[in-house]
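Thread: "does anyone have the structure for this chain?"

Original post by V.I.:
We have the sequence but no experimental structure in hand. Need at least a predicted one for the grant figures.
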Amino acid sequence: MKPSLQQLTLTALLGLTLLHPAQAREYQAGTLVITDPYTRTTPPAAAVGGGFLSVTNNADTADRLTGGQVDFAETVEVHEMHMTDGVMKMRQLENGLEIPAGGRVELRPGGYHLMFIGLKEPLQAGAEHAGTLQFEKAGEVAVVFEVRDINAMQPPANNAPMNPAAMAADHLQAQPPASASGAATQAHPDTMNSNSQ
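Reply from O.Q.:
Generated one for you, tokens below.
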């Protein structure tokens, strides 16, 4: 039996789609190129969310990502995650994140990222939200953050089901470390203990 013209056309289109996936969004501001800004879905009670993207600096001098604004959160800060003594910790980069001359910086889960604090609404898969990124030299750059389903993005470790609500609760309930004087330091909304469940 011969395939119909419609079947051949659909097969060809599917092949082209697989060979050339949809292009990531790209924004340019002078010598900076911002690629693929996105955030992830959040549970209804979440107070924070993360933002991710890539920044390429084609200039001869460094620039610095210092923050931004979005329509769905009160504050946008630049943060980093790192492991210390088996505990995953996040902290604000108060002076921003350097984008080196001729370099590229990835903001991804588990590393540098934007922290959206004071969410005004849950982030729903498929939504798009306008925002701006603030750079020391390039100034404000308008972007659109795509909301991606957190459960569809990566398989959980050891095949355990992901629970975004529990992860958000851990993120918000982490205890601050004690300072050298024994007094508790100011609570930071982005400190997470990887051992708490």
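V.I.: this helps a lot. Confidence is low (pLDDT under 50) at residues 8-21, 155-197.
O.Q.: and The chain has three helices and eleven strands.
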